[in-house]
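Risk register update: the risk of archive-format incompatibility is retired. Evidence:
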Amino acid sequence: SQAARNGTILAVEKLNLSGGINGRQVELLIFDDENDQNKVREGVKFLSNAGAAGIIGPITSQMSVAAVPEANQQKIVLVSPTSSTVNLTGKTDHFFRTISTCEANARRLAIYATEKLGAKRFSILQDTSNIAFTQPWQHCFAGQIELSGGEIVAKEQYDSLEKSYSFLNLAEKLLRQDPDAILVLTNSIDAAMFSQQIEKLVPDIHLLGSDWSSSGNLIQYGGRSVEGFTFTTNLDMDSNAPSFTRFKEDYLARFGEPVMFPSVLAYEASLTFFKALSKNQDPAQMAKVLTSIGKIEGLQGEIVLDSYGDIVRSTYINEVKNGKRVCIFESTE
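Archived output:
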């Protein structure tokens, strides 16, 4: 995403202004995988052959699952800011990340929806173009809903890459079983467009989403239709931590727009990779270095990679109120 790319650009620029790594400037090569599995594998091979020491990305879970075998073959590390699929958890490979897996977020949102919102009947909209993310997310969410005494009354799938779908038609199908809430597992623009159709039909229903739905211009495109939209993040975007405050100011000055959470995670992924690079600049050794790197000072506290390159973060429940994102609940259980 553009937000993640910008976070990486800012990290590289600030590093180079401070002297680079061991006196050497870092060069950033950018490759667009176009959300295509063949293209992402091509990108891993291209960047490896170009001499890259590592890759910040991929951004989506589906692209990460497709990229890992090629990364393992090329022996080049992937440090993803935002791929939270459980399909890559607990594996010894060349994949690392600075976001938690989706299990906790899905479970915590389900608990919030049943206990705080009082919802019992749920429908789910799932974009299968990123099924490595959306399938585990909806599975974990549905499991917790059942444990909490609720039920999933309808599910609808579509593929955002196919363009042969109607959000109005999908909305009508998901509303037929009279749900109290709808879980929207899509990108932010699709979430906004779907919300517009829901507003025409049942304007007071609870809309729920993952961090993917909020990672772009949900509010800009959704307008009043996304008022009350409730979603998870793994960052407190209202944090007053000094390093995070400075980052937001630097980001706004550099790109002319407010920071979004993928920018933060990409910046932290870059910091993580830079620390490894400062210890050993051999691409073939980078996975070993990252596995034993220990603590990294992130923008909101320490980041600690486990032996498989995974981390655990808090879950923040956010709601759109008066056209702005507001953090309303934090869960660490």
